[in-house]
Design brief:
Helix content is 42%, strand content 16%. The chain is built from 15 helices and 15 strands. Bound molecules: pyridoxal-5'-phosphate.
């Protein structure tokens, strides 16, 4: 057998084999899988903007006015009026001096970390940061120090041991697979004391937390105190693309040295226009994020009432931790057979032994939909003999790793 076949077999044996699932029709609170409608509990389209009429129309209009592709990278001939308009609006929204779009949130993290970590400094990174942050650290010339998840004492110890001016501390604000929130005020305070810059990835917090959905930074009262805000247009904003909000100087540095920006084509005009329309909707309807949080609270209380243990938290991301990868897969299949689509999340997305169903709500999910989903999940768990643990997720090994 080929080495590739053997590699795939090893993944199958370990319960880590992955495949895609086909959704027909648009994204929404319910979707069609194989022609059958199911409740969607694993989408990041939190505010339902992906198929909102105004967002669709804006994207369609943009395709008619400006075409489908940007034709070149931003620094050659790909910068178009719609990019600049969206960047201005995002900078206002995040209350920063400047903003630059990236092809995706993944590319934004890779670009920022390789550009800010281009020297002989250290990047201090939370153990449960998103894969795009990990890959950014790998591409940076700087060394990476992984601190224990949300552990300010460990971060402070590391900064005292090896911190110096120009270092970078990077964290998700809402952690993507756990739904907990980084101690941003403490991180900003430590950074100030040690002369480090702070990069905060608001991918899951934009549209979900803070006044008007302005994110975890705004909620913590830290506007203007975070050096770099990374965001995505692909989650609450329902479109596709990434962005970085920062000082004019940092944005200039990114335009001049972030290879993920320089060597990749500018965002398609319809994606930018769709995101801009969604941002305008979010600004006009600042209560949508509160509705999302109320929906999340409802799911959490329904789970508790059904005796399903979940780690404590308050965001729209609710992990049901199973442990074993194969058991998580079987649970996901059994739930799907009962009309609930909740994808199993396994290593390397989460640490070994902490495979889970990562439930996410959409603001428009109704109480009866959630009640039904929780009884389907209970029945599925009984059927496959799975129990849940409310233990805090297994912390990834904190290691100092050379770049
Ligand atoms: C999804 C995600 C990204 C990547 O964003 P895309 O726009 O989907 O590439 C980056 N960071 C975090 C924390 C995420 O959850």
């Amino acid at each position: 057998m080929s080495d590739i076949g053997a590699q795939l077999d090893r993944l199958r044996d370990a319960g880590l084999y992955r495949r895609t699932r086909l959704i027909s029709g648009p994204q929404g609170p319910r979707v069609l899988i194989d022609g059958t409608p199911v409740l969607l509990l694993c989408s990041n389209n939190y505010l339902g903007f992906a198929d909102h009429p105004r967002v669709r129309e804006a994207a369609a209009d943009a395709a008619m006015r400006w075409g489908v592709g940007a034709g070149a990278s931003r620094l050659v001939s790909g910068t178009m009026t719609i990019h600049e308009r969206l960047e201005q609006r995002l900078a206002e929204f995040e209350r920063t001096e400047s903003c630059v779009l990236f092809g995706s949130g993944y590319l934004a993290n890779v670009g920022v970390l390789s550009a800010l970590g281009a020297g002989d400094q250290t990047i201090f990174s939370d153990a449960l940061n998103h894969a795009s942050i990990i890959d950014g650290c790998r591409l940076a010339r700087a060394e990476t120090f992984v601190y224990e998840h949300c552990n300010l004492d460990h971060l402070e110890w590391a900064l005292r041991e090896r911190g110096r001016e120009g270092d970078v501390i990077v964290t998700d604000s809402i952690f993507s697979m756990d739904g907990d929130i980084a101690p941003l005020a403490g991180i900003v305070e430590l950074a100030r004391r040690h002369g480090a810059r702070v990069v905060v990835d608001e991918a899951h917090a934009t549209g979900a937390l803070g006044p008007g959905g302005r994110g975890a930074i705004a909620e913590a009262g830290l506007d203007g105190q975070v050096d770099v805000v990374v965001g995505t247009l692909s989650k609450s904003l329902g479109s596709y693309g990434g962005y970085v909000c920062a000082s004019r100087e940092i944005v200039e540095l990114l335009l001049n040295s972030a290879r993920a920006l320089i060597f990749s084509t500018a965002l398609p005009p319809p994606a930018a226009a769709g995101a801009l329309a969604a941002l305008e909707l979010l600004i006009e309807q600042p209560l949508r994020p509160a509705k999302l949080q109320a929906t999340a609270a409802l799911l959490r209380s329904e789970l508790a009432a059904a005796g399903i243990a979940a780690p404590r938290g308050r965001t729209q991301i609710v992990p049901l931790i199973v442990g074993d990868a194969d058991a998580a897969m079987r649970l996901s299949e059994a739930a799907l057979a009962r009309g609930v689509f909740a994808q199993a999340i396994r290593p390397p997305t989460v640490p070994a032994g902490s495979s889970r169903l990562r439930l996410t709500v959409i603001a428009s999910h109704t109480a009866s939909e959630l009640t039904g989903a929780v009884s389907a999940l209970s029945a599925a768990a009984r059927e496959v003999g799975v129990t849940f643990t409310a233990e805090d997720p297994v912390p990834a090994e904190p290691v100092a790793r050379a770049a």
